[in-house]
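During the first year of the project, the team set up a workflow for recording each protein of interest as an amino acid sequence followed immediately by a discrete structure-token representation. This format lets reviewers and collaborators read both layers of information side by side without switching files. As required by the reporting guidelines, we include two representative entries from the current panel. The first entry is reproduced here exactly as it appears in our internal archive.
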Amino acid sequence: MGYALSYRADEGTWHGPSAAFELALWKKLGLRAAAQGALPGQRELSPLELRFYGVAFVMAATLRYALAEGIDLQWFVGPALDVVRYADSAGFANDYE
């Protein structure tokens, strides 16, 4: 359980509550399941301005490298599903109807 940040291109930086579960298979390899929430945010993408929130789910294989006693560097790669809700916050949608 924690709080996470991640960069999402057009949506900018997501931040919000997160939860992860990792199963260590061997000393350096494992499997990871995670979910991260994106607190409501706003982003200007000319000519649109969007409000959004969402959640991301990840299933991944992990690789861990020990840097020092109790300090590990970890990579993970695998498929993810992002569920995002967008809303026009500047009224542009009505201009094109």
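The second entry, processed by the same pipeline in the following quarter, appears below.
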Amino acid sequence: MNKRYNSLITDSLKYSLTKVFPGIVGLISIIVIIKIIGAEEYGKYSILYSFVLTLTAFCGGWLNQALLRYYPGNNDIKKIENQAILCLLISVLSGILILIGIYIIKGDSLFQNTNIFLVIFFFIAVLLYQFQISIYRSQIRPNMVVLITSIQSILSLIMPLFFIYHFNSEVKYIIIGLTIAYLGSSIKNIFFKIASLKHIFTYQKKSNFILYELFKFGWPLSIWLTLSLALQFLDRFFINYYYDNNLTGIFAGFYDLVVRIFSIFIFPITMAVHPRMMSLWNKSKYSNAISIWKIAILIQILIFAFIYTIIQLFFEEISYSLLWLFSDLNPKYFHLLIPLLIGGFIWQFALLIHKPLELNKSTHLMLISIAIALIVNLLGNIMFLPKYGLIATAYTFVLSGTVYIISSTILSISFYKKIFTQSKSIIK
């Protein structure tokens, strides 16, 4: 038991490295880029970037989540890898078709006047990077995740600044730099994986079954990821619609700051616990999987309590630091930090709370919860953003996350009853 928990803590620390270093570099990137291009241009960039992330979730999220669910502890790993490459190609083609369709209907307005071919290459680069990270996470190889994310974070700072310095501060040059960063950190490993393409056309019926199982489990999660990222996109879209790019950039700057903080301290717990839980569950070690889940929940709550306490005690000092770091951000909006901090934790915490639905393969129920949260987000922004400003969007962020956790817990009641029944039978 102690060995298992020690492994969880060790992997969490390793995954922290995948977030600490990229998180610090990401914070530097946010600060430097906002200083160079200003809040308005950063607002334009944030809309395009969040849109591409939403699209990659829609086209490839199902595959990444299915790999994390079925890969650990599976005896047919080679067949799963072969089918995963085929699924990756399907995801790439579907995303390209969607982007072309949007361009035909809307023109380049949604792409912030960025060339459609550049947006396509950026989409492919992000998709390949996320696929590679999912492979290593499902193999429980945190060292490789550390290496790839570190390379990506360094390139994501250097390359955009290189193109901004040598050309100008338009959004397209930031996207060119990020495309190179995502491709440069994963292209070698992806080409190695694609070498297995020669096997995918000779698979047997069992491989067909694997492909079906991957898609059956993953597609609801892909929709879930799309809707969850759409929350971020819609926040920025509505702010831009009701106000301007400048306020969009201010909100995006604070939001990205909070996300970086929690990606360093909270998300590594989720990254470490997920493959271990799935591996134990796939091996029918149900009580062990639940025990790890409970420990992860407790650790996240304690970390958030510590961070929140520190910020409340030193809020004035932190505000002065933010004013020095983000000189282009209006200090009257620093009050956004607390609700965004709470909302950021709630949504990170939700990734653990809905684990019972994932374990029970009830991913379709997760869609119900995220759909409710999306409705809350839409109503909150449409009804209150024009009247109360950015603070309405910040508190809508908190409320939608809370609603998601409550609905996920309610929908997991049958799972809890089953576990409780199994525990009583074991005791007897």
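For the second entry, the following points were noted during internal review. Residues 259 and 344 are 6 Å apart (CA to CA). Residues 2-70 form the longest helix (69 residues). Both points are flagged for discussion at the upcoming steering committee meeting.
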